[in-house]
Design brief:
Elements: E1 2-7, H1 15-29, E2 34-42, E3 56-62, H2 94-107, E4 112-115, H3 118-127, E5 133-138, H4 147-156, E6 162-165, H5 168-177, E7 184-187, E8 206-210, H6 219-232, E9 237-241, H7 247-256, E10 263-267, H8 273-276, E11 281-284, H9 293-300, E12 305-308, H10 314-317, E13 324-327, H11 332-344, H12 346-359, H13 365-381, H14 383-409, H15 418-428
Parallel strand pairs: 1-2, 1-4, 2-3, 4-5, 5-6, 6-7, 8-9, 8-11, 9-10, 11-12, 12-13
Helix pairs in contact: 1-13, 2-3, 6-11
Protein backbone atom coordinates (compact mmCIF):
# COMPACT_ATOMS: atom_id res chain seq x y z
CA UNK A 1 0.00 0.00 0.00
CA UNK A 2 1.27 3.50 -0.83
CA UNK A 3 1.03 5.88 2.15
CA UNK A 4 1.84 9.59 1.97
CA UNK A 5 2.38 11.86 4.98
CA UNK A 6 1.99 15.63 4.58
CA UNK A 7 4.37 17.31 7.04
CA UNK A 8 4.92 21.00 7.76
CA UNK A 9 8.74 20.84 7.60
CA UNK A 10 10.52 17.49 7.63
CA UNK A 11 13.86 19.32 7.83
CA UNK A 12 13.10 20.92 11.22
CA UNK A 13 13.24 19.71 14.81
CA UNK A 14 9.95 19.05 16.58
CA UNK A 15 7.76 16.45 18.19
CA UNK A 16 5.50 16.03 15.17
CA UNK A 17 8.50 15.58 12.87
CA UNK A 18 10.01 12.94 15.13
CA UNK A 19 6.77 11.00 15.65
CA UNK A 20 5.92 11.11 11.93
CA UNK A 21 9.35 9.73 11.01
CA UNK A 22 8.92 6.99 13.63
CA UNK A 23 5.50 6.00 12.28
CA UNK A 24 6.64 6.14 8.66
CA UNK A 25 9.62 3.88 9.35
CA UNK A 26 7.43 1.45 11.30
CA UNK A 27 4.88 1.26 8.47
CA UNK A 28 7.71 0.24 6.15
CA UNK A 29 9.34 -2.19 8.57
CA UNK A 30 6.29 -3.83 10.15
CA UNK A 31 3.58 -3.19 7.57
CA UNK A 32 5.52 -3.60 4.34
CA UNK A 33 4.11 -0.34 2.99
CA UNK A 34 5.59 2.09 0.48
CA UNK A 35 5.88 5.41 2.35
CA UNK A 36 6.51 8.95 1.12
CA UNK A 37 6.83 12.09 3.24
CA UNK A 38 5.89 15.36 1.55
CA UNK A 39 7.37 18.40 3.31
CA UNK A 40 5.46 21.65 2.76
CA UNK A 41 8.69 23.61 3.26
CA UNK A 42 12.43 23.03 3.24
CA UNK A 43 14.70 25.47 5.06
CA UNK A 44 17.99 23.52 5.03
CA UNK A 45 19.90 21.03 2.91
CA UNK A 46 19.44 17.91 5.06
CA UNK A 47 16.85 16.93 7.69
CA UNK A 48 17.96 17.26 11.31
CA UNK A 49 16.49 13.86 12.18
CA UNK A 50 17.62 10.71 10.39
CA UNK A 51 15.16 9.59 7.71
CA UNK A 52 14.85 5.87 6.98
CA UNK A 53 16.46 5.39 3.54
CA UNK A 54 13.44 3.34 2.44
CA UNK A 55 11.24 6.46 2.76
CA UNK A 56 10.95 8.94 -0.10
CA UNK A 57 11.21 12.58 0.98
CA UNK A 58 9.57 15.18 -1.29
CA UNK A 59 10.00 18.92 -0.47
CA UNK A 60 7.49 21.25 -2.14
CA UNK A 61 8.69 24.81 -1.42
CA UNK A 62 12.35 25.70 -0.86
CA UNK A 63 12.49 28.52 1.70
CA UNK A 64 16.28 28.70 1.90
CA UNK A 65 17.80 32.12 1.39
CA UNK A 66 18.68 32.63 -2.24
CA UNK A 67 16.69 29.61 -3.37
CA UNK A 68 14.97 29.56 -6.74
CA UNK A 69 11.50 29.46 -5.19
CA UNK A 70 12.02 32.90 -3.65
CA UNK A 71 11.80 34.33 -7.18
CA UNK A 72 8.44 32.67 -7.90
CA UNK A 73 5.51 35.18 -8.06
CA UNK A 74 3.44 33.32 -5.49
CA UNK A 75 6.25 33.18 -2.92
CA UNK A 76 5.74 36.76 -1.80
CA UNK A 77 1.96 36.50 -1.51
CA UNK A 78 0.07 35.13 1.52
CA UNK A 79 -1.74 31.83 1.33
CA UNK A 80 -5.39 31.93 0.33
CA UNK A 81 -6.26 28.40 1.46
CA UNK A 82 -4.22 27.69 4.59
CA UNK A 83 -6.41 28.77 7.56
CA UNK A 84 -5.53 32.28 8.72
CA UNK A 85 -6.30 31.32 12.33
CA UNK A 86 -3.65 28.55 12.26
CA UNK A 87 -0.46 29.33 14.19
CA UNK A 88 1.75 28.58 11.17
CA UNK A 89 -0.24 30.75 8.75
CA UNK A 90 2.53 33.32 8.22
CA UNK A 91 4.84 30.55 7.00
CA UNK A 92 2.49 29.66 4.14
CA UNK A 93 2.34 31.45 0.80
CA UNK A 94 0.32 31.34 -2.38
CA UNK A 95 3.14 29.22 -3.79
CA UNK A 96 2.48 26.64 -1.04
CA UNK A 97 -1.18 26.54 -2.06
CA UNK A 98 -0.24 26.01 -5.69
CA UNK A 99 2.41 23.36 -5.05
CA UNK A 100 0.30 21.37 -2.58
CA UNK A 101 -2.72 21.42 -4.87
CA UNK A 102 -0.67 20.35 -7.88
CA UNK A 103 0.90 17.53 -5.90
CA UNK A 104 -2.37 16.19 -4.48
CA UNK A 105 -4.45 16.54 -7.64
CA UNK A 106 -1.87 15.62 -10.30
CA UNK A 107 1.03 13.68 -8.77
CA UNK A 108 -0.30 11.79 -5.78
CA UNK A 109 -1.06 8.13 -6.45
CA UNK A 110 -1.39 7.12 -2.80
CA UNK A 111 -3.84 4.70 -1.25
CA UNK A 112 -3.73 6.67 2.00
CA UNK A 113 -2.82 10.33 2.61
CA UNK A 114 -2.22 11.52 6.18
CA UNK A 115 -2.15 15.18 7.22
CA UNK A 116 -0.23 16.05 10.38
CA UNK A 117 -1.43 19.52 11.47
CA UNK A 118 -4.73 21.46 11.21
CA UNK A 119 -3.88 23.68 8.23
CA UNK A 120 -2.42 20.77 6.29
CA UNK A 121 -5.55 18.75 7.05
CA UNK A 122 -7.51 21.56 5.41
CA UNK A 123 -5.32 21.22 2.30
CA UNK A 124 -6.05 17.49 2.37
CA UNK A 125 -9.81 18.05 2.68
CA UNK A 126 -9.76 20.50 -0.23
CA UNK A 127 -7.59 18.62 -2.72
CA UNK A 128 -6.91 15.10 -1.44
CA UNK A 129 -7.26 12.48 -4.17
CA UNK A 130 -10.75 10.99 -4.06
CA UNK A 131 -9.51 7.45 -4.55
CA UNK A 132 -7.30 7.69 -1.45
CA UNK A 133 -8.27 7.44 2.20
CA UNK A 134 -7.83 10.90 3.73
CA UNK A 135 -6.78 10.86 7.37
CA UNK A 136 -6.12 13.91 9.50
CA UNK A 137 -3.89 13.63 12.56
CA UNK A 138 -4.20 16.07 15.46
CA UNK A 139 -0.97 16.40 17.39
CA UNK A 140 -2.42 19.31 19.36
CA UNK A 141 -5.44 19.26 21.68
CA UNK A 142 -8.87 20.38 20.44
CA UNK A 143 -8.90 23.09 23.14
CA UNK A 144 -5.48 24.37 22.03
CA UNK A 145 -7.14 25.71 18.87
CA UNK A 146 -8.87 29.08 19.00
CA UNK A 147 -12.59 29.39 18.32
CA UNK A 148 -12.14 30.71 14.79
CA UNK A 149 -9.86 27.84 13.80
CA UNK A 150 -12.20 25.25 15.32
CA UNK A 151 -15.07 26.62 13.20
CA UNK A 152 -12.91 26.36 10.07
CA UNK A 153 -11.84 22.83 10.91
CA UNK A 154 -15.41 21.73 11.59
CA UNK A 155 -16.30 22.61 7.99
CA UNK A 156 -13.32 20.95 6.36
CA UNK A 157 -12.84 17.90 8.57
CA UNK A 158 -16.19 16.58 7.33
CA UNK A 159 -14.45 15.76 4.05
CA UNK A 160 -11.95 13.43 5.74
CA UNK A 161 -12.33 9.70 6.22
CA UNK A 162 -10.86 9.70 9.71
CA UNK A 163 -9.48 12.00 12.38
CA UNK A 164 -6.78 10.52 14.63
CA UNK A 165 -5.94 12.11 17.98
CA UNK A 166 -3.08 11.18 20.29
CA UNK A 167 -5.25 10.45 23.35
CA UNK A 168 -8.66 8.92 24.06
CA UNK A 169 -9.59 12.00 26.07
CA UNK A 170 -9.05 14.29 23.08
CA UNK A 171 -10.98 11.94 20.78
CA UNK A 172 -13.91 12.19 23.19
CA UNK A 173 -13.71 15.99 23.02
CA UNK A 174 -13.84 15.96 19.21
CA UNK A 175 -16.76 13.52 19.20
CA UNK A 176 -18.77 15.67 21.60
CA UNK A 177 -17.95 19.15 20.26
CA UNK A 178 -17.40 18.76 16.51
CA UNK A 179 -20.12 17.16 14.37
CA UNK A 180 -18.27 15.04 11.79
CA UNK A 181 -20.80 12.67 10.15
CA UNK A 182 -19.14 9.82 8.30
CA UNK A 183 -15.72 10.58 9.83
CA UNK A 184 -14.16 7.96 12.08
CA UNK A 185 -12.74 9.73 15.15
CA UNK A 186 -10.32 7.65 17.19
CA UNK A 187 -7.13 7.78 19.23
CA UNK A 188 -3.87 6.11 18.27
CA UNK A 189 -0.86 7.04 20.43
CA UNK A 190 2.53 7.93 19.05
CA UNK A 191 5.13 5.29 18.44
CA UNK A 192 8.08 5.57 20.81
CA UNK A 193 10.75 3.04 19.80
CA UNK A 194 12.82 1.25 22.45
CA UNK A 195 15.90 3.17 23.56
CA UNK A 196 19.06 2.18 21.72
CA UNK A 197 21.24 2.02 24.83
CA UNK A 198 20.99 0.34 28.23
CA UNK A 199 18.38 1.63 30.72
CA UNK A 200 19.17 3.80 33.71
CA UNK A 201 20.56 2.00 36.75
CA UNK A 202 18.76 4.49 39.00
CA UNK A 203 21.84 5.34 41.06
CA UNK A 204 22.75 8.81 39.78
CA UNK A 205 21.64 11.85 41.71
CA UNK A 206 20.17 13.51 38.62
CA UNK A 207 16.65 14.73 37.89
CA UNK A 208 16.00 15.47 34.21
CA UNK A 209 13.37 17.32 32.19
CA UNK A 210 13.12 18.00 28.47
CA UNK A 211 11.04 20.04 26.05
CA UNK A 212 10.68 23.45 24.52
CA UNK A 213 11.43 26.29 26.93
CA UNK A 214 7.98 27.83 26.57
CA UNK A 215 5.54 29.18 29.19
CA UNK A 216 3.14 26.23 29.04
CA UNK A 217 5.90 23.78 30.00
CA UNK A 218 6.17 25.54 33.40
CA UNK A 219 9.89 25.20 33.97
CA UNK A 220 9.51 28.11 36.38
CA UNK A 221 7.29 25.86 38.53
CA UNK A 222 9.78 23.00 38.24
CA UNK A 223 12.64 25.23 39.38
CA UNK A 224 10.57 26.46 42.32
CA UNK A 225 9.81 22.85 43.31
CA UNK A 226 13.42 21.78 42.86
CA UNK A 227 14.59 24.64 45.09
CA UNK A 228 12.64 23.04 47.93
CA UNK A 229 14.14 19.63 47.13
CA UNK A 230 17.68 21.00 46.80
CA UNK A 231 17.54 22.50 50.29
CA UNK A 232 17.15 18.97 51.74
CA UNK A 233 19.09 16.99 49.12
CA UNK A 234 22.28 18.98 48.40
CA UNK A 235 23.86 16.25 46.24
CA UNK A 236 21.04 16.11 43.67
CA UNK A 237 20.98 18.26 40.52
CA UNK A 238 18.38 19.17 37.89
CA UNK A 239 19.17 19.09 34.18
CA UNK A 240 16.73 20.76 31.75
CA UNK A 241 17.14 19.93 28.04
CA UNK A 242 15.70 22.12 25.30
CA UNK A 243 15.69 25.60 23.85
CA UNK A 244 13.10 28.30 23.44
CA UNK A 245 11.99 31.84 24.23
CA UNK A 246 12.02 31.45 28.02
CA UNK A 247 15.70 30.58 28.25
CA UNK A 248 16.89 34.04 29.47
CA UNK A 249 14.09 34.19 32.04
CA UNK A 250 14.87 30.70 33.32
CA UNK A 251 18.60 31.43 33.58
CA UNK A 252 17.77 34.46 35.70
CA UNK A 253 15.40 32.39 37.81
CA UNK A 254 18.10 29.76 38.45
CA UNK A 255 20.32 32.50 39.88
CA UNK A 256 17.49 34.13 41.80
CA UNK A 257 16.59 30.85 43.51
CA UNK A 258 20.20 30.18 44.45
CA UNK A 259 20.40 27.12 42.18
CA UNK A 260 23.51 28.05 40.18
CA UNK A 261 25.47 24.85 39.64
CA UNK A 262 22.54 22.77 40.88
CA UNK A 263 20.00 23.42 38.09
CA UNK A 264 21.46 23.45 34.60
CA UNK A 265 19.99 24.46 31.23
CA UNK A 266 21.62 21.94 28.93
CA UNK A 267 20.37 23.17 25.53
CA UNK A 268 18.76 21.04 22.83
CA UNK A 269 20.01 17.46 22.69
CA UNK A 270 18.89 14.82 20.19
CA UNK A 271 18.40 11.99 20.74
CA UNK A 272 17.32 12.61 24.32
CA UNK A 273 17.27 8.98 25.50
CA UNK A 274 21.01 8.76 26.38
CA UNK A 275 20.54 11.78 28.65
CA UNK A 276 17.45 10.32 30.29
CA UNK A 277 19.38 7.09 30.89
CA UNK A 278 21.82 9.12 33.00
CA UNK A 279 18.97 10.29 35.27
CA UNK A 280 17.14 8.58 38.13
CA UNK A 281 13.96 10.68 37.87
CA UNK A 282 12.36 12.58 34.95
CA UNK A 283 9.86 15.37 35.62
CA UNK A 284 7.22 17.25 33.61
CA UNK A 285 5.51 20.32 35.08
CA UNK A 286 3.38 21.22 32.03
CA UNK A 287 0.00 22.94 32.23
CA UNK A 288 -1.24 20.88 29.25
CA UNK A 289 0.05 18.07 27.03
CA UNK A 290 -1.54 16.72 23.86
CA UNK A 291 0.42 13.51 24.45
CA UNK A 292 3.55 13.57 26.62
CA UNK A 293 6.32 12.23 24.43
CA UNK A 294 9.13 12.86 26.90
CA UNK A 295 7.32 10.84 29.57
CA UNK A 296 7.29 7.75 27.35
CA UNK A 297 10.90 8.34 26.27
CA UNK A 298 11.93 8.45 29.94
CA UNK A 299 9.99 5.29 30.75
CA UNK A 300 11.65 3.60 27.76
CA UNK A 301 14.93 4.30 29.58
CA UNK A 302 13.69 2.65 32.77
CA UNK A 303 13.24 5.95 34.62
CA UNK A 304 10.22 6.65 36.86
CA UNK A 305 8.45 9.92 36.05
CA UNK A 306 6.79 12.68 38.01
CA UNK A 307 4.23 14.65 36.00
CA UNK A 308 1.46 17.12 36.52
CA UNK A 309 -1.91 15.54 35.76
CA UNK A 310 -2.21 17.87 32.80
CA UNK A 311 -4.88 17.54 30.15
CA UNK A 312 -4.80 15.37 28.18
CA UNK A 313 -1.89 12.96 27.82
CA UNK A 314 -0.11 12.16 31.11
CA UNK A 315 -2.96 10.23 32.74
CA UNK A 316 -3.04 7.90 29.72
CA UNK A 317 0.71 7.29 30.00
CA UNK A 318 1.50 7.27 33.73
CA UNK A 319 -0.21 4.88 36.15
CA UNK A 320 -0.11 6.92 39.34
CA UNK A 321 1.80 5.15 42.10
CA UNK A 322 2.93 2.32 39.79
CA UNK A 323 5.36 3.68 37.19
CA UNK A 324 5.41 7.29 38.36
CA UNK A 325 3.50 10.00 40.19
CA UNK A 326 0.80 12.36 38.95
CA UNK A 327 0.38 15.63 40.85
CA UNK A 328 -2.06 18.54 40.48
CA UNK A 329 -1.32 21.11 37.77
CA UNK A 330 0.41 24.24 39.06
CA UNK A 331 1.19 22.79 42.52
CA UNK A 332 4.90 23.32 43.22
CA UNK A 333 4.66 21.80 46.68
CA UNK A 334 3.10 18.55 45.40
CA UNK A 335 5.74 18.40 42.65
CA UNK A 336 8.53 18.81 45.23
CA UNK A 337 7.03 16.17 47.53
CA UNK A 338 6.77 13.62 44.70
CA UNK A 339 10.40 14.20 43.68
CA UNK A 340 11.52 13.98 47.31
CA UNK A 341 9.70 10.69 47.82
CA UNK A 342 11.54 9.07 44.90
CA UNK A 343 14.84 10.53 46.06
CA UNK A 344 14.44 9.35 49.66
CA UNK A 345 13.09 5.87 48.86
CA UNK A 346 15.42 4.00 46.47
CA UNK A 347 13.32 0.81 46.79
CA UNK A 348 10.21 2.58 45.50
CA UNK A 349 12.30 4.28 42.83
CA UNK A 350 13.67 0.95 41.62
CA UNK A 351 10.22 -0.68 41.55
CA UNK A 352 8.69 2.21 39.61
CA UNK A 353 11.62 2.16 37.17
CA UNK A 354 10.99 -1.51 36.36
CA UNK A 355 7.25 -0.86 35.99
CA UNK A 356 7.95 2.12 33.71
CA UNK A 357 10.14 0.02 31.43
CA UNK A 358 7.45 -2.67 31.13
CA UNK A 359 4.58 -0.20 30.69
CA UNK A 360 6.32 1.64 27.86
CA UNK A 361 6.06 -1.43 25.63
CA UNK A 362 2.52 -0.24 24.84
CA UNK A 363 4.17 2.21 22.47
CA UNK A 364 6.17 -0.38 20.49
CA UNK A 365 6.04 0.08 16.70
CA UNK A 366 4.38 -3.25 15.82
CA UNK A 367 1.11 -2.84 17.77
CA UNK A 368 0.70 0.78 16.62
CA UNK A 369 1.19 -0.25 12.98
CA UNK A 370 -1.39 -3.01 13.50
CA UNK A 371 -3.89 -0.40 14.71
CA UNK A 372 -3.30 1.74 11.62
CA UNK A 373 -3.62 -1.28 9.31
CA UNK A 374 -6.90 -2.15 11.01
CA UNK A 375 -8.08 1.43 10.52
CA UNK A 376 -7.23 1.37 6.81
CA UNK A 377 -9.18 -1.87 6.35
CA UNK A 378 -12.16 -0.53 8.27
CA UNK A 379 -12.24 2.73 6.33
CA UNK A 380 -12.16 0.98 2.97
CA UNK A 381 -14.96 -1.39 3.99
CA UNK A 382 -17.17 1.40 5.36
CA UNK A 383 -16.81 3.93 2.54
CA UNK A 384 -20.36 3.62 1.20
CA UNK A 385 -21.95 3.66 4.64
CA UNK A 386 -19.98 6.72 5.70
CA UNK A 387 -20.78 8.50 2.41
CA UNK A 388 -24.45 7.86 3.10
CA UNK A 389 -24.06 9.31 6.63
CA UNK A 390 -22.51 12.46 5.16
CA UNK A 391 -25.29 12.73 2.56
CA UNK A 392 -28.01 12.40 5.20
CA UNK A 393 -26.33 15.03 7.38
CA UNK A 394 -26.03 17.46 4.45
CA UNK A 395 -29.69 16.86 3.52
CA UNK A 396 -30.83 17.43 7.10
CA UNK A 397 -28.78 20.63 7.35
CA UNK A 398 -30.25 21.86 4.05
CA UNK A 399 -33.77 21.12 5.30
CA UNK A 400 -33.17 23.02 8.53
CA UNK A 401 -31.77 26.03 6.66
CA UNK A 402 -34.72 25.97 4.27
CA UNK A 403 -37.22 25.82 7.14
CA UNK A 404 -35.54 28.79 8.84
CA UNK A 405 -35.62 30.72 5.57
CA UNK A 406 -39.36 30.03 5.15
CA UNK A 407 -40.08 31.11 8.74
CA UNK A 408 -38.18 34.35 8.25
CA UNK A 409 -40.05 35.09 5.02
CA UNK A 410 -43.52 34.69 6.59
CA UNK A 411 -45.47 37.88 7.42
CA UNK A 412 -44.84 38.62 11.08
CA UNK A 413 -41.89 36.20 11.18
CA UNK A 414 -38.42 37.28 12.18
CA UNK A 415 -37.72 38.20 8.55
CA UNK A 416 -40.99 40.09 7.87
CA UNK A 417 -41.22 43.88 7.58
CA UNK A 418 -42.30 45.99 10.59
CA UNK A 419 -45.61 46.63 8.74
CA UNK A 420 -46.12 42.85 8.30
CA UNK A 421 -45.48 42.26 11.99
CA UNK A 422 -47.92 45.02 13.03
CA UNK A 423 -50.62 43.57 10.75
CA UNK A 424 -50.01 40.10 12.18
CA UNK A 425 -50.40 41.32 15.75
CA UNK A 426 -53.56 43.29 14.84
CA UNK A 427 -55.23 40.45 12.96
CA UNK A 428 -54.28 37.90 15.58
CA UNK A 429 -55.79 39.86 18.49
CA UNK A 430 -59.45 39.92 19.53
CA UNK A 431 -61.16 42.98 18.10
CA UNK A 432 -63.27 45.35 20.25
CA UNK A 433 -66.91 44.25 20.38
CA UNK A 434 -66.25 40.74 19.19
CA UNK A 435 -67.68 37.76 21.04
Amino acid sequence: MKIVFLLHNAYAVGGTVRTTLNLAAALVEHGGHDVEIVSMSRHREKPRFAVDPRITLVPLVDTRAGGADAREPGYGQPSRDFPAAEKRYKQYTLLHDQRVRAYLEDRCAADVVVGTRPGINVYLALWGPRQALRIGQEHLRHDAHNKKLRATLARHYRQLDALVTMTEADADVYRSRMALPGVRVLAVPNIVPPAAGPPSDGTTKIIAAAGRLAPGKRYDLLLEAFAAVAAKEPEWELRIYGGGPQEPHLRALVGGLGLTGRARLMGTVSPIEPEFAKASVVVSASDAESFGMTLVEAMRCGVPVVSTDAPLGPAEIVTDGVDGWLVPVGDARALAEAMAELIEDPVTRKGMAAAALASARRFDPAPIVARYDSLFTELRASRRRRAWQRFRARTANWARRKARSVRRARPGGPGGTPHDRRRSRTHGAAQPGSS
